[in-house]
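explain this:

___
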Amino acid sequence: MILVIDDVLTAADVAKITDKLATLRFVDGTMTAGWHAKLVKNNLQLDRNQPDYPPLNKAVTEALLRHPTFRMAARPRHITPLLFSRYRDSMEYGTHVDDPIMYNLRSDVSFTLMLADPSTYDGGELVMETTEGERAHKLNAGQMIMYPSTTLHRVTPVTKGERVAAVGWCQSYVRNADQREILYDLDVARRAIFEKEKKSREFDVISRCHANLLRMWADG
């Protein structure tokens, strides 16, 4: 499931984060790329050895975990430290798949949280390879896209302006992407029933199915 999530950060949150990033040091992005990804990765990323990185990472991670759609879709058990990336001057990230182990965690779900207004830069689309062909995404600041870490994807060259984003991975309680999607759909349906009918018999039955499937599929 490839899912775009709105309003992960408010406009004020985005402005505060980007103002802080503008004062910090960025380094060559290949420093955190796998041996094959180094061949196609050309960007900059925040040097995380700076004292301002931990509170910045904490603030954005907490915003993710507060968002109900992210929790419903990802079932996050652990989240990696975030990478704050910057693309400009024709920088790009060629086709690659994310490493299966990131920061000693199994990468089940990848996500990109946009921090730049798309009208301020040209290029920089996040392109996913799917069974239906390629799908390009260029999101608003504060929006996030999440997708299975098994997905081949790339970032097209940024030919004007600057693309800024926070990228991360999570190990899910439910490692199978199809099972996560089923749980997400059930959760959406039962919440819609609750909004319409409150605690009805139908809500209780779907809630039981949701709970028991999660119990069946969740890692111990």
The first strand starts at residue 3 and ends at 5. The mean pLDDT is 96. Helices lie at 11-21, 53-66, 68-74, 177-197, 201-217.
